[in-house]
Specification:
- By secondary structure, the chain is an alpha/beta fold.
- It is built from twelve helices and 20 strands.
- It has a five-stranded parallel β-sheet, sandwiched between helices. Strands 16-17-18-20-19 form a five-stranded mixed β-barrel.
- The radius of gyration is 23 Å and the shape is globular.
């Protein structure tokens, strides 16, 4: 029923045949994945089981994504498939909020329920109405870390909901609301439970990780009998005590991020930043209404690398934004040359229902967007390839993701986030014999080759 691709994951089946069964389809970004995990945790706590087939499910929950047109189409396809195969369907997530929810209601009038992101109560009420729980209070159904849809050795750690920015191409605030940070003690306790359960890598996520705690006025919290501020630095200091890899995503380039660099230089958190720059032209950034648009991002990158020379920076960019001229695009290419980012993704601008950018003048023709996209990726591909060539001969630490006896096993270096960055292919590593390992182990390897995006290595 549910695929195991990054956008759609399948929950495993339980062992209690008498329990009511729920089919679950999870779509979208890591933040939506965490919402799915919370719903599944609540379902398991109340005695429900998950099933991988529509036929066996008493009800199906579809957690949707509605950010861009392709995501809307995928979500509608998933809902349609669930309705055709099962008929009892609960829809939640970003497509269930804002103006796009009317599309869902019109297309599927017989849905049991439609709710927006983070609305766990509505989802559970709809499931209860469709199939009441059969909870066994004498049976421990819930692991301490909750239900996870990621492999056992890494997990997403969501530190806040919502966003206070008003980027002209984005409707996330209308779907997920304003910034609502989780208290630092609560986050650190969750992280501790995850690590105790075997998680080796914590991926910190939110809409704006740099803004963490601003809405709570950076209130202090306690964990392990120590006090930490609810802000990015306090969180990182606490997470560094757990001995796991800590990877920061969606970090805006504000000045206070400089305070994290010494922790990265000392490897207390991974020297890795996911910074959504989106563009380099001041004119385009102003039209996008991007936070930190006035910041000199090149100066900030140089300052970060001065403190932490091994820093890996990944980012995403949009080409073909309304009003983007050839001069603006050339400025972006020049910026890439200077910034020398390690990992980069690029999107061709597409209108999003409800976004203010739709009304901007100077819409860029699709053929121009396509041409600029390919020029951008060609430029970045050369930068990435050169950076990986420099790693040949180095000995690096790798977190093992997959073991294959008949092919190269797969891992990731600290410079690679799961599913979005490159991989390290390790020869001679298997489940048996002299050189054996298991997913979730951290091992040392020697890099012997590289292509545009991946490394090839042998055991050190």
């Amino acid at each position: 029923m549910a695929r195991t691709a990054p956008a759609r994951r399948r929950a495993g089946a339980s062992q209690k045949p008498a329990a009511p069964k729920v089919g679950f389809v999870s779509l979208g970004c890591p933040k939506a994945l965490v919402d799915s995990e919370r719903i599944l945790t609540q379902l398991r706590a109340e005695g429900y089981e998950t099933t991988p087939t529509y036929d066996a499910a008493d009800v199906v929950v579809v957690n949707t994504c509605g950010f861009i047109d392709d995501a809307v189409a995928e979500s509608l396809d998933a809902i349609g498939e669930a309705m055709a195969e099962n008929g009892k369907v609960v829809v939640t997530g970003c497509l269930g909020a804002g103006p796009k929810s009317s599309i869902v209601r019109e297309k599927f009038p017989d849905l049991l329920s439609i709710s927006g992101p983070q609305d766990y109560v509505s989802v559970m009420n709809a499931v209860h109405a469709a199939v009441p729980p059969a909870h066994d209070p004498f049976f421990d159904l819930l692991p301490p870390q909750g239900i996870k849809l990621t492999p056992k050795h890494y997990a997403y750690l969501k530190i806040s909901e919502g966003c206070n920015h008003k980027c002209s191409f984005c409707i996330i605030p209308s779907m997920r609301g304003k910034l609502a940070s989780r208290p630092v003690g609560e986050v650190l306790l969750e992280a501790e439970k995850l690590v105790k359960s075997g998680v080796q890598e914590l991926l910190v996520i939110s809409q704006d990780t740099s803004a963490y705690g601003a809405d709570l006025k950076y209130a202090k919290g306690r964990w392990r009998d120590q006090e930490y501020e609810t802000r990015l630095l306090g969180l990182c200091n606490g997470l560094s005590e757990l001995g796991a890899w800590v990877r920061l995503h969606y970090v805006y380039p504000y000045p206070h991020v400089d305070q994290i660099m010494p922790l990265m230089a000392e490897r207390k958190v991974l020297p890795y930043l996911d910074v959504p720059f989106q563009h380099a032209s001041p004119k385009v950034l102003k039209a996008m209404k991007r936070p930190a648009a006035a910041e000199d991002t090149l100066e900030r990158i140089h300052a970060w690398r001065k403190i932490c020379p091994d820093l890996t920076i990944r980012s995403t960019f949009i080409v073909g934004f309304p009003g983007e001229t050839e001069k603006d695009f050339e400025l972006l290419l020049d910026w890439l040359d200077e910034a020398q980012l390690d990992r980069v993704g690029c999107f061709r601008y597409s209108p999003v229902d409800g976004a203010t950018a739709n009304a901007l003048p100077g819409q860029v023709p699709d053929e121009v967007k396509e041409e600029r996209y390919h020029r951008f990726m060609e430029k970045q591909q050369a930068i990435s390839a050169a950076k990986l060539q420099d790693k040949i001969g180095q000995t690096i630490e790798v977190l093992v993701d997959e073991i294959h006896d008949d092919a190269a096993s797969v891992g990731r270096s600290w410079a690679d986030a799961p599913e979005i960055d490159g991989k390290v292919y390790i020869k001679g590593l298997g489940t048996s014999g002299k050189l054996k390992a298991m997913p979730g182990q951290r091992i040392k390897v020697k890099v012997v080759d590289a292509d545009d995006y991946d490394l090839f290595a042998t055991l050190a």
